[in-house]
Protein backbone atom coordinates (compact mmCIF):
# COMPACT_ATOMS: atom_id res chain seq x y z
CA UNK A 1 0.00 0.00 0.00
CA UNK A 2 1.14 3.53 -0.73
CA UNK A 3 2.89 5.02 2.30
CA UNK A 4 0.88 8.24 1.96
CA UNK A 5 -2.14 6.40 3.30
CA UNK A 6 -0.41 6.10 6.65
CA UNK A 7 0.50 9.70 7.49
CA UNK A 8 -0.28 10.31 11.15
CA UNK A 9 -3.21 8.22 12.39
CA UNK A 10 -4.68 11.19 14.28
CA UNK A 11 -5.13 13.48 11.33
CA UNK A 12 -6.55 10.84 9.04
CA UNK A 13 -8.88 9.25 11.55
CA UNK A 14 -12.56 9.09 10.74
CA UNK A 15 -13.25 11.17 13.86
CA UNK A 16 -11.13 14.04 12.54
CA UNK A 17 -12.95 13.90 9.21
CA UNK A 18 -16.33 13.67 10.91
CA UNK A 19 -15.59 16.90 12.77
CA UNK A 20 -15.25 18.68 9.45
CA UNK A 21 -18.59 17.27 8.34
CA UNK A 22 -20.24 18.54 11.53
CA UNK A 23 -18.73 21.95 10.83
CA UNK A 24 -20.16 21.94 7.28
CA UNK A 25 -23.61 21.02 8.63
CA UNK A 26 -23.39 23.87 11.13
CA UNK A 27 -22.62 26.23 8.26
CA UNK A 28 -25.75 25.13 6.42
CA UNK A 29 -24.72 22.27 4.11
CA UNK A 30 -27.71 19.92 4.09
CA UNK A 31 -27.31 17.62 1.09
CA UNK A 32 -26.59 14.13 2.45
CA UNK A 33 -24.86 12.96 -0.71
CA UNK A 34 -22.46 15.89 -0.63
CA UNK A 35 -21.77 15.37 3.06
CA UNK A 36 -21.14 11.66 2.49
CA UNK A 37 -18.80 12.30 -0.45
CA UNK A 38 -16.83 14.71 1.73
CA UNK A 39 -16.79 12.28 4.63
CA UNK A 40 -15.31 9.58 2.40
CA UNK A 41 -12.72 11.67 0.53
CA UNK A 42 -9.25 11.86 2.16
CA UNK A 43 -8.48 15.59 1.78
CA UNK A 44 -5.07 15.12 3.43
CA UNK A 45 -3.92 13.27 0.30
CA UNK A 46 -4.54 16.39 -1.80
CA UNK A 47 -2.11 18.64 0.06
CA UNK A 48 1.59 18.50 0.80
CA UNK A 49 2.51 16.23 3.72
CA UNK A 50 3.69 19.25 5.70
CA UNK A 51 0.11 20.58 5.65
CA UNK A 52 -1.67 17.27 6.13
CA UNK A 53 -2.42 17.97 9.79
CA UNK A 54 -4.53 20.95 8.70
CA UNK A 55 -6.36 19.17 5.91
CA UNK A 56 -9.61 18.78 7.87
CA UNK A 57 -9.83 22.41 8.91
CA UNK A 58 -12.41 24.36 6.97
CA UNK A 59 -9.87 26.56 5.19
CA UNK A 60 -8.19 26.93 1.82
CA UNK A 61 -4.53 25.82 1.89
CA UNK A 62 -1.59 26.56 -0.43
CA UNK A 63 -0.73 23.92 -3.07
CA UNK A 64 2.21 25.74 -4.69
CA UNK A 65 2.36 27.73 -7.93
CA UNK A 66 0.45 30.54 -6.13
CA UNK A 67 -2.65 28.35 -6.07
CA UNK A 68 -4.84 26.92 -3.30
CA UNK A 69 -7.01 23.91 -2.57
CA UNK A 70 -10.51 25.34 -2.08
CA UNK A 71 -12.13 25.67 1.33
CA UNK A 72 -14.27 22.58 2.08
CA UNK A 73 -17.36 24.71 2.75
CA UNK A 74 -17.08 26.30 -0.69
CA UNK A 75 -16.51 22.90 -2.36
CA UNK A 76 -19.66 21.63 -0.63
CA UNK A 77 -21.67 24.72 -1.58
CA UNK A 78 -20.69 24.52 -5.26
CA UNK A 79 -21.36 20.80 -5.42
CA UNK A 80 -24.75 21.21 -3.75
CA UNK A 81 -25.68 23.89 -6.26
CA UNK A 82 -25.22 21.62 -9.29
CA UNK A 83 -27.01 18.57 -7.88
CA UNK A 84 -30.02 20.47 -6.54
CA UNK A 85 -32.60 18.86 -8.85
CA UNK A 86 -30.86 15.53 -9.28
CA UNK A 87 -27.42 14.24 -10.14
CA UNK A 88 -26.06 15.35 -13.53
CA UNK A 89 -24.31 12.77 -15.72
CA UNK A 90 -21.51 14.87 -17.10
CA UNK A 91 -19.68 17.73 -15.44
CA UNK A 92 -16.77 19.96 -16.45
CA UNK A 93 -14.50 21.51 -13.82
CA UNK A 94 -12.31 24.46 -14.77
CA UNK A 95 -9.26 24.73 -12.48
CA UNK A 96 -8.21 21.20 -11.40
CA UNK A 97 -5.68 22.48 -8.83
CA UNK A 98 -5.12 19.77 -6.22
CA UNK A 99 -7.83 17.57 -7.72
CA UNK A 100 -9.90 17.64 -4.52
CA UNK A 101 -13.06 19.25 -5.93
CA UNK A 102 -12.77 16.86 -8.88
CA UNK A 103 -12.63 13.87 -6.53
CA UNK A 104 -15.79 15.04 -4.74
CA UNK A 105 -17.52 15.41 -8.10
CA UNK A 106 -16.28 11.98 -9.20
CA UNK A 107 -17.82 10.41 -6.09
CA UNK A 108 -21.24 11.65 -7.20
CA UNK A 109 -21.22 12.04 -10.97
CA UNK A 110 -20.67 9.47 -13.72
CA UNK A 111 -18.30 11.45 -15.96
CA UNK A 112 -16.04 14.24 -14.76
CA UNK A 113 -13.84 16.36 -17.06
CA UNK A 114 -11.33 18.77 -15.59
CA UNK A 115 -9.01 21.36 -17.10
CA UNK A 116 -5.89 22.93 -15.55
CA UNK A 117 -3.38 25.37 -17.03
CA UNK A 118 -0.40 24.74 -14.68
CA UNK A 119 1.39 21.61 -15.85
CA UNK A 120 2.84 20.32 -12.54
CA UNK A 121 -0.61 20.64 -10.91
CA UNK A 122 -2.22 18.82 -13.82
CA UNK A 123 0.36 16.00 -13.58
CA UNK A 124 0.04 15.68 -9.82
CA UNK A 125 -3.77 15.66 -9.86
CA UNK A 126 -3.77 12.94 -12.51
CA UNK A 127 -1.41 10.82 -10.46
CA UNK A 128 -3.53 11.25 -7.33
CA UNK A 129 -6.70 10.24 -9.15
CA UNK A 130 -4.94 7.11 -10.37
CA UNK A 131 -3.66 6.26 -6.87
CA UNK A 132 -7.16 6.70 -5.46
CA UNK A 133 -8.68 4.59 -8.21
CA UNK A 134 -10.87 7.41 -9.56
CA UNK A 135 -11.39 6.21 -13.10
CA UNK A 136 -14.21 8.52 -14.10
CA UNK A 137 -12.17 11.74 -14.30
CA UNK A 138 -10.48 12.92 -17.50
CA UNK A 139 -7.78 15.55 -17.25
CA UNK A 140 -6.65 18.15 -19.75
CA UNK A 141 -3.84 20.69 -19.72
CA UNK A 142 -5.19 23.88 -21.24
CA UNK A 143 -6.88 27.24 -20.73
CA UNK A 144 -10.25 26.28 -19.31
CA UNK A 145 -11.86 29.61 -20.17
CA UNK A 146 -12.50 27.92 -23.52
CA UNK A 147 -14.14 24.97 -21.80
CA UNK A 148 -13.48 21.52 -23.27
CA UNK A 149 -15.26 21.53 -26.58
CA UNK A 150 -14.88 17.88 -27.60
CA UNK A 151 -17.03 16.57 -24.73
CA UNK A 152 -19.59 19.40 -24.68
CA UNK A 153 -22.41 19.92 -23.88
CA UNK A 154 -22.20 19.44 -20.11
CA UNK A 155 -25.02 19.05 -17.60
CA UNK A 156 -23.00 21.15 -15.20
CA UNK A 157 -19.83 23.25 -15.15
CA UNK A 158 -17.94 24.16 -11.97
CA UNK A 159 -15.34 26.93 -12.20
CA UNK A 160 -12.86 27.11 -9.31
CA UNK A 161 -10.94 30.27 -10.27
CA UNK A 162 -12.48 33.72 -10.65
CA UNK A 163 -12.72 35.58 -13.98
CA UNK A 164 -13.81 39.23 -14.07
CA UNK A 165 -16.60 38.24 -16.42
CA UNK A 166 -18.24 34.94 -17.25
CA UNK A 167 -16.48 33.35 -20.27
CA UNK A 168 -19.01 33.00 -23.09
CA UNK A 169 -17.66 29.59 -24.17
CA UNK A 170 -18.67 28.07 -20.85
CA UNK A 171 -22.28 29.21 -21.18
CA UNK A 172 -22.30 27.83 -24.74
CA UNK A 173 -21.00 24.43 -23.63
CA UNK A 174 -23.81 24.05 -21.12
CA UNK A 175 -26.63 21.72 -22.12
CA UNK A 176 -30.21 22.94 -21.94
CA UNK A 177 -31.27 22.75 -18.30
CA UNK A 178 -27.56 22.77 -17.36
CA UNK A 179 -26.05 24.67 -14.46
CA UNK A 180 -22.87 26.71 -14.23
CA UNK A 181 -21.43 27.65 -10.85
CA UNK A 182 -18.71 30.29 -11.00
CA UNK A 183 -17.02 32.92 -8.82
CA UNK A 184 -16.91 36.29 -10.58
CA UNK A 185 -14.97 39.40 -9.62
CA UNK A 186 -11.59 40.83 -8.76
CA UNK A 187 -9.20 38.97 -6.47
CA UNK A 188 -8.83 42.07 -4.29
CA UNK A 189 -12.56 42.15 -3.54
CA UNK A 190 -15.21 39.73 -2.33
CA UNK A 191 -16.31 37.83 -5.43
CA UNK A 192 -19.87 36.76 -6.23
CA UNK A 193 -20.43 33.03 -6.38
CA UNK A 194 -23.02 32.81 -9.15
CA UNK A 195 -25.29 29.99 -10.26
CA UNK A 196 -26.51 30.17 -13.85
CA UNK A 197 -29.31 27.89 -14.96
CA UNK A 198 -29.84 27.49 -18.71
CA UNK A 199 -33.57 27.16 -19.30
CA UNK A 200 -35.51 27.17 -22.55
CA UNK A 201 -36.55 30.74 -21.75
CA UNK A 202 -32.98 31.90 -21.20
CA UNK A 203 -30.39 32.11 -18.44
CA UNK A 204 -31.55 32.44 -14.83
CA UNK A 205 -28.87 33.89 -12.57
CA UNK A 206 -28.66 33.60 -8.80
CA UNK A 207 -26.04 34.83 -6.30
CA UNK A 208 -25.16 32.07 -3.83
CA UNK A 209 -22.47 33.59 -1.65
CA UNK A 210 -19.50 35.92 -1.30
CA UNK A 211 -16.23 34.06 -1.91
CA UNK A 212 -12.48 34.49 -2.43
CA UNK A 213 -10.87 32.51 -5.27
CA UNK A 214 -7.56 32.80 -7.09
CA UNK A 215 -7.96 34.53 -10.49
CA UNK A 216 -8.89 32.65 -13.66
CA UNK A 217 -5.90 33.40 -15.86
CA UNK A 218 -6.74 33.53 -19.53
CA UNK A 219 -4.33 33.09 -22.39
CA UNK A 220 -1.83 30.49 -23.45
CA UNK A 221 -0.47 27.88 -21.05
N1 LIG B 1 -10.59 22.93 -7.65
C1 LIG B 1 -9.28 23.13 -7.07
C2 LIG B 1 -9.05 24.59 -6.76
C3 LIG B 1 -7.76 25.03 -7.30
S1 LIG B 1 -7.44 26.74 -7.31
C4 LIG B 1 -9.05 22.24 -5.89
O1 LIG B 1 -10.01 21.59 -5.43
O2 LIG B 1 -7.92 22.13 -5.42
C5 LIG B 1 -7.80 27.16 -8.99
C6 LIG B 1 -7.02 26.48 -10.08
O3 LIG B 1 -7.44 27.06 -11.31
C7 LIG B 1 -5.50 26.66 -10.02
O4 LIG B 1 -4.89 25.41 -10.02
C8 LIG B 1 -5.17 27.44 -11.28
O5 LIG B 1 -3.94 27.10 -11.86
C9 LIG B 1 -6.32 27.07 -12.18
N2 LIG B 1 -6.59 28.00 -13.28
C10 LIG B 1 -6.52 29.37 -13.29
N3 LIG B 1 -6.85 29.85 -14.48
C11 LIG B 1 -7.15 28.77 -15.27
C12 LIG B 1 -7.55 28.62 -16.63
N4 LIG B 1 -7.73 29.66 -17.43
N5 LIG B 1 -7.75 27.36 -17.09
C13 LIG B 1 -7.57 26.27 -16.31
N6 LIG B 1 -7.19 26.37 -15.01
C14 LIG B 1 -6.98 27.60 -14.50
Task: Outline the fold blueprint.
Elements lengths: L8 H4 L1 H13 L5 H9 L20 E4 L2 E3 L2 H11 L7 E5 L5 H9 L2 E6 L2 H13 L5 E5 L12 E6 L8 H5 L1 E11 L6 E9 L2 E10 L10
Helix pairs in contact: 2-3, 3-5
The chain binds S-adenosyl-L-homocysteine.
Description:
This protein has helices at 9-12, 14-26, 32-40, 72-82, 100-108, 119-131, 168-172, and strands spanning 61-64, 67-69, 90-94, 111-116, 137-141, 154-159, 174-184, 191-199, 202-211. With 221 residues, the protein is α/β, with parallel strands linked by helices. It has a domain at 60-211: Rossmann fold. The chain has a 7-stranded mixed beta sheet. Strands 1-2 form a two-stranded antiparallel ribbon. Strand 3, helix 5 (100-108) and strand 4 form a beta-alpha-beta unit. Helix 2 runs antiparallel to helix 3 (32-40) and helix 3 (32-40) packs across helix 5. The mean pLDDT is 94.
Number of helices: 7
What is bound: which ligands? Answer: S-adenosyl-L-homocysteine
Low-confidence segments, ≥5 residues, pLDDT <50? none
Under CATH, the topology of the domain at 60-211 can be stated as Rossmann fold
CATH class of the domain at 60-211: Alpha Beta
